[in-house]
Specification:
By secondary structure, the chain is of the alpha+beta class. It folds into 3 domains: 126 residues, DNA methylase specificity domains (Adenine-n6-DNA-methyltransferase TaqI, Chain A, domain 2, Alpha-Beta Complex); 46 residues; 129 residues, Adenine-n6-DNA-methyltransferase TaqI, Chain A, domain 2 (Alpha-Beta Complex), CATH 3.90.220.20. The chain is built from 7 helices and 20 strands. The protein has a 4-stranded antiparallel beta sheet, covered by helices on one side. Strands 10-20-15-18 form a 4-stranded antiparallel beta sheet. Strands 4-3-7 form a 3-stranded mixed beta sheet, with no helix packed on it. β5 and β6 form a beta hairpin. It is elongated, with a radius of gyration of 26 Å.
């Protein structure tokens, strides 16, 4: 332990108290007061239950345990904690950095809805300098580091956006061409279309051996992996007709088009032989006449986007 530093259990450093209940229906979206719940900003309201400088910690939800510095008037719901007492001197921003570094979420009770409690957090050890000035120096260093990271991230995102725009432009240019040797065929003539099966929610559980492609896995040109949704091993044989393989295309059948584009992705190696859930279709190209990668890029083109947009009511 560094000289001038303390190692103290969380419950002996601060007191946590749940906020007050406020349902979404009772919030006032026209209000100017931010409402904080278990996962951060939950809405707006017209009255507050905290003001000044506060620390709010998510209590319930996917982001439970996440600490945030809140300044000004706000409403903290009962899905979050507010720090009501300090038994040591803390710079609030330093304490937020410290709590998030520790990652309080790992102390959550794992259930359908993760929850952290006073009892699960009170014995977590905090190591910190007693000197406020040293805490503030650490905050200054971290603020500068995160500002630099944010600037770098913004630059990378701009470059990626420009690259995507250029790629999409070239893609559209290629597939708008026609010439000798080109053929036009209906999708069903060059690929097999598989509609997903409506599996029962009770059959899903984490840790089973059969992966499932759900609508939440299908992003815009992106496959979003999720280990939580799995089915029993026996389902592989029973529902073999809705299995997909690496390289197959999957398309969302609900909200197929969103602001960022058409929701289509390719099945990764890790999802080979996964089963297809309802509201998702698989497009399996006939290998002898259609290259899988070519078909994927074609479906990502503006020609297909425009076709789906024009026919969305009849296709979905």
């Amino acid at each position: 332990m560094k000289e001038g530093w303390e190692k103290v259990e969380l419950g002996k450093c601060i007191k946590l108290k749940s906020g007050e209940g406020l349902t979404a229906k009772k919030m006032n979206s026209e209000g100017s007061i931010p409402v904080y719940g278990g996962n951060g900003l939950a809405g707006m309201h017209d009255i507050h239950n905290v003001e000044g400088e506060n620390i709010v910690i998510g209590r319930v939800g996917a982001l439970c345990g996440n600490a945030r510095f809140v300044q000004g008037k706000a409403w903290v719901t009962d899905n979050a904690f507010k720090v009501t007492e300090f038994y040591y001197s803390f710079d609030l921003k330093f304490l937020v950095y410290l709590l998030n570094h520790i990652d309080l979420r790992k102390y959550a009770r794992q259930s359908a809805q993760p929850v952290v409690s006073n009892s699960s957090l009170k014995n977590v050890e905090l190591s910190f300098p007693k000197s406020l000035s040293e805490q503030q120096q650490i905050v200054s260093i971290l603020d500068k580091a995160f500002a630099a990271l944010d600037a770098a991230r913004a630059k990378v995102e701009r470059n990626l956006a420009n690259a995507r725009e250029l790629f999409q432009s070239k893609l559209n240019e290629v597939f708008s061409q026609r010439g000798p040797g080109w053929e036009e065929r209906k999708l069903g003539e060059v690929a097999k279309i598989i509609n997903g099966y409506s599996f029962k929610s009770k059959d899903f559980a984490p840790g089973q051996s059969t992966k499932v492609v759900k609508i939440t896995n299908v992003g815009v040109k992106e496959f979003v992996e999720d280990e939580q949704n799995t089915l029993p091993e026996s389902f592989r044989k029973t529902y073999k007709s809705v299995s997909v393989h690496e390289g197959d295309l999957v398309v969302a059948l609900t909200r197929t088009i969103i602001s960022s584009g058409l929701k289509v992705a390719r099945v990764p190696e890790s999802y080979d032989k996964a089963l297809l859930n309802q509201r998702v279709a698989a497009v399996v190209p006939a290998r002898e006449v259609m290259d899988s990668e070519y078909l994927y890029f074609y479906i990502c083109s503006s020609q297909v986007y425009d076709y789906v947009l024009d026919n969305v009511n009849t296709l979905m």
